[in-house]
Specification:
Structural class: alpha/beta
Strand order of the largest sheet: 2-1-3-4-5
Number of strands: 16
Largest sheet: 5 strands, parallel
Oligomer: single chain
Number of domains: 3
Distance between the termini: 68 Å
CATH architecture of the largest domain: 3-Layer(aba) Sandwich
CATH class of the largest domain: Alpha Beta
Radius of gyration: 27 Å
Helix content: 40-55%
Shape: elongated
Number of helices: 18
């Protein structure tokens, strides 16, 4: 049996820990032990065990098992999906049964039989491994494409994903930052845990603390019940904060404190709640410039960008445009029960030549709309309705700026859609919130 996986053993009997470490050395690649249950949170973060063997009693003369049941629930909260095997005396089997009802995977009775304890622990390790593999296979892998720009991103992701390093993803709107965040989670050791995504641009400043840190009943008028925040909900997994650049300077300090202490206090509450998350943030803004302008805290910036990944705009990865378009056609053909049409040569040329100011999101909406409105087994250039973009050069032959192209595209879309903002956002392949941000930016 080849050693693999990690086990954490928690028992206040040092002799028992030594015995188990020797016994399991040839079964698990890493055997971690601790006699102090209060070290469990830090060891979960550092070791990411596949299995925890947890004693039911720790204090001298205390044999009611309540401490073990408490730590069972804490482990499940801090690292959802980990298998917890309870370690208990023969007389406390009823306690172990209560533990099973609370989510423990199995229990082992002291004094233990060597073969029995190895069998139980190995079964739980292998079961979790199978679940993790099945979950990864069930999740849709990210489409990387063949462009050189994306090959470089993929190389960095494959190195960074298996770590717990905080990652900052930069790129224009519509380049797929959330898709990349989900791919990182899928490839990480936290894949069995939750992936919680939050769009910071849609949360009013007044609700920021409630959404991220949670609140207790009665904390404010509409707080009718206790509510966990996003940090708690993501514990054991990944928390993705999109548009982190929209966070106000005052609220950045509270975010930094939470990340440094790895605890939150719900609005209206008093007790600190620990969490264990891998943080991924994203923005379409230049955070380094914001730091220089003192609109973004430098200490928070360094906290969130241990690794920075930049997603190139679609116009810089032309080799991926047609494969992406074909992927979206297959996806929506399947969803709508339609045959998959092929792209004609002139359609391919039109798709490749277009600058795609809305990036992949705009391409996706374009292919969905085209499939719905087109009959037959082929899509030609005439079927592709693409908003016009400014391409005329000034007398000096200088190229127009991207901002000018984007502004002109938005104004044309507004004219064509009669000022209907929902229709404009859909035409451009962006969200309404993003559209409003751009209207404000360009003074439209």
């Amino acid at each position: 049996m080849k050693p693999k996986g990690t086990i954490l053993i928690v028992d206040d009997n040092e002799a028992m820990l030594t015995s188990l470490k020797i016994l399991l050395h040839d079964v698990f690649a890493t055997v971690c032990t601790t006699p102090h249950p209060h070290t469990i949170p830090s060891m979960l973060r550092a070791e990411r065990p596949d299995v925890v063997l947890l004693d039911m009693n720790f204090g001298r003369g205390v044999n009611n098992g309540n401490e073990g049941l408490f730590w069972l629930q804490e482990i499940q909260r801090l690292q959802p999906g980990v298998s917890v095997v309870l370690f208990t005396a023969y007389a406390d089997i009823e306690l172990a049964v209560n533990g099973l009802k609370l989510g423990a995977a199995d229990f082992v009775v002291k004094p233990f039989d060597n073969e029995r304890i190895i069998e139980v622990l190995v079964n739980q390790r292998d079961r979790k491994d199978k679940k993790k593999t099945a979950r990864r296979q069930s999740q849709q892998p990210m489409f990387w494409g063949e462009s050189e720009a994306m090959k470089l991103v993929r190389e960095k992701v494959e190195r960074a994903a298996p770590t717990d390093a905080n990652i900052l993803i930069t790129g224009e709107n519509g380049t797929g930052k959330e898709v990349l965040a989900r791919e990182i989670h899928r490839l990480s050791f936290r894949a069995a845990g939750p992936m919680v995504a939050v769009d910071m641009g849609t949360i009013p400043a007044s609700l920021f603390e409630s959404e991220l840190f949670g609140h207790v009943k009665g904390a404010f008028t509409d707080a009718h019940a206790d509510k966990p925040g996003k940090f708690e909900l993501a514990s054991g997994g990944t928390l993705f904060l999109d548009e982190i650049g929209n966070l106000s300077y005052a609220l950045q300090a509270k975010m930094l404190t939470a990340l440094q202490n790895r605890t939150v206090t719900r609005v209206g509450g008093r007790s600190e709640i620990s969490f264990d998350v891998r943080l991924i943030t994203a923005t379409n803004r230049n955070v380094e410039t914001m730091v220089a302008e003192q609109s973004f805290r430098e200490d928070l910036f360094y906290r969130i960008n241990t690794i920075t990944l930049h997603l190139p705009p679609l116009r810089e990865r032309a080799a991926d445009i047609v494969p992406l378009a074909e992927m979206f056609l297959k996806r929506y053909a399947l969803a709508y029960g339609r045959p998959v049409p092929r792209l004609s040569p002139d359609a391919v040329q039109k798709l490749t030549a277009y600058p795609w100011p809305g990036n992949i999101r705009q391409l996706q909406h374009t292919m969905e709309r085209t499939l719905i409105l087109t009959d037959g087994d082929q899509i030609s250039a005439a079927h592709l309705e693409l908003p016009a973009v400014a391409v005329a050069a000034a007398p000096s032959a200088e190229l127009v700026t991207l901002e000018a192209v984007e502004r002109d595209t938005i104004e044309r879309a507004m004219t064509e859609c009669g000022g209907n903002m929902s229709a404009v956002a859909q035409r451009l392949g962006i969200t309404r919130q993003t559209l409003y941000n751009k209207l404000k930016k360009y003074g439209i």
